[in-house]
Amino acid sequence: MAAFLAVAILAAISHSNPTNANSVSFAAEYRHPPNGVCVDYTVKQEITSTNYIWALEKFKSNFDTIDFITDIARKDSKTAFHPVRSNTKNETKTYEVSATFCSPKKATAGKVNTVLLATHGLGYDRRYWASSWKPEDYSFADFALDKGYSVFFYDRLGVGKSETVSGYENQGSIQVALLERLVELVRAGRYTGAIGKPKNIVLVGHSFGSFMSAALINDQPKLVDGVVLTGIAYPNATDLAGPDSAWSLETFAARIARFQDKKWSKLDTGYLNFADIYSHVNGFFKAPNYDMPTVEYAQAIAQPFAALEFVSLQLFKLDSPTFRGPVMVTAGENDLLLCGGECKSTFSSGVAEQAFKGAKDLNLYVHPGAGHGVNFGFNATVFYGKITEFLDKNF
Ligand SMILES: *[C@@H]1O[C@H](CO)[C@@H](O)[C@H](O)[C@H]1NC(C)=O
Ligand SMILES: *[C@@H]1O[C@H](CO)[C@@H](O)[C@H](O)[C@H]1NC(C)=O
Ligand SMILES: CC(=O)N[C@H]1CO[C@H](CO)[C@@H](O)[C@@H]1O
């Protein structure tokens, strides 16, 4: 076993065979930041949401999957492609999500009562926020705890240790309703240990998690005290997610997860995964701003996403002109998925200013050299520093 591991680590270091090295070279277990007092929770809640109904045949093969991706990427897909029915249905169901709450061991007066409630994006689970690979360079949770903030982070429905539901049912509306409930429970001090009821709750998101956080404050502008939206951009005033968002799925080269690896056998064919480490890098990293071992770690912890989740992303309302708290909108300079590979011009379009025109403090920041998955690129801690600087100013 030890020899096997050593070989795998060597393979990772020599870059000779990145995909084979994944499964053994990195501990997959979830890690508690040592500078935090951390507790894991299973949150089981009944929620009601207005849901879209999948209108296509379920995928039988990857040919069906790529045809779906092709249709989404069509320039006229918004009018020509109908993956969901025109009617929605209201559903009440109980779901279970797995979460971690950490408060800083070394508490700074005031800050410990600000809880950063973090929602990861598609392709990952909550380990996006708490890398066990070089945490000093990549773990947002470690960094935020070090600066005195409390952090609540969870696996979105369908990934990691949260409940598995069909990839043709799991979608944005359910997850936003769950996020809203998590905010209410954290607000009530349910999962916050000794700190009790927090003074402030700040939503922190990455990508799909940012879309969800934005959709939640669109619906409930008074629910939280601030938002930090990472891996998101506001490119277009009439189409806030941007016309590019439809073809961005092409970069995933998404394939049916259960046909890739038996570790995904509990997922139905509605769950899609990066085709390989190269498509993962295509969407989330930008050379020369990353190193191989970090990409291999990211690939080892990658999680499939639901086809309907991606579709529902395009149905989120992303502006919140009546939100009065501070808002940070930030992405990597070379984010391909949200900015078409160049974020400076996107961020100077003036669209975010309109989307959050009631914000007390709107901070727009483009992180130099990074791709979409900023947390696993070089200088992630510089990026985290910008976030906590923004928080320090406002809380
Ligand atoms: C679903 O719920 C929404 C919000 O409560 C309501 O406005 C709508 O009429 C409901 N739709 C159906 C079909 O019951
Ligand atoms: C914004 O999106 C609309 C609708 O997709 C498109 O017609 C328009 O050209 C886009 N504007 C910019 C500046 O890209
Ligand atoms: C601004 C900054 O911190 N840049 C650093 C980003 O990471 C690379 C690689 O570690 C360094 O060389 C830069 O100095």
Question: Please, could you describe this protein's structure?
Answer:
With 395 residues, the chain is of the alpha/beta class. It has a single domain (35-394), classed as 3-Layer(aba) Sandwich (Rossmann fold), CATH 3.40.50. Helix content is 35%, strand content 21%. It contains 17 helices and eleven strands. It has helices spanning 2-14, 18-25, 62-73, 77-80, 135-138, 140-146, 172-187, 208-219, 249-252, 257-260, 277-284, 292-301, 307-313, 336-339, 343-347, 351-355, 380-394; strands at residues 36-54, 84-104, 114-119, 150-154, 200-206, 226-230, 255-256, 271-273, 305-306, 327-332, 362-367. An eight-stranded mixed β-sheet has the order 1-2-4-3-5-6-10-11, sandwiched between helices. A three-stranded antiparallel β-sheet has the order 7-8-9. Strand 5, helix 8 and strand 6 form a beta-alpha-beta unit. Helix 1 (2-14) packs across helix 2 (18-25) and helix 7 (172-187) crosses helix 8 (208-219). It is globular, with a radius of gyration of 20 Å. Residues 1-25 have low confidence and may be disordered. One 2-acetamido-2-deoxy-beta-D-glucopyranose binds next to loops.
How are the SSEs placed, and which strands pair?
Elements: H1 2-14, H2 18-25, E1 36-54, H3 62-73, H4 77-80, E2 84-104, E3 114-119, H5 135-138, H6 140-146, E4 150-154, H7 172-187, E5 200-206, H8 208-219, E6 226-230, H9 249-252, E7 255-256, H10 257-260, E8 271-273, H11 277-284, H12 292-301, E9 305-306, H13 307-313, E10 327-332, H14 336-339, H15 343-347, H16 351-355, E11 362-367, H17 380-394
Parallel strand pairs: 3-4, 3-5, 5-6, 6-10, 10-11
Antiparallel strand pairs: 1-2, 2-4, 7-8, 8-9
Bound molecules: 2-acetamido-2-deoxy-beta-D-glucopyranose (NAG) (3 copies).
Residues 50, 90 line the site of one 2-acetamido-2-deoxy-beta-D-glucopyranose.
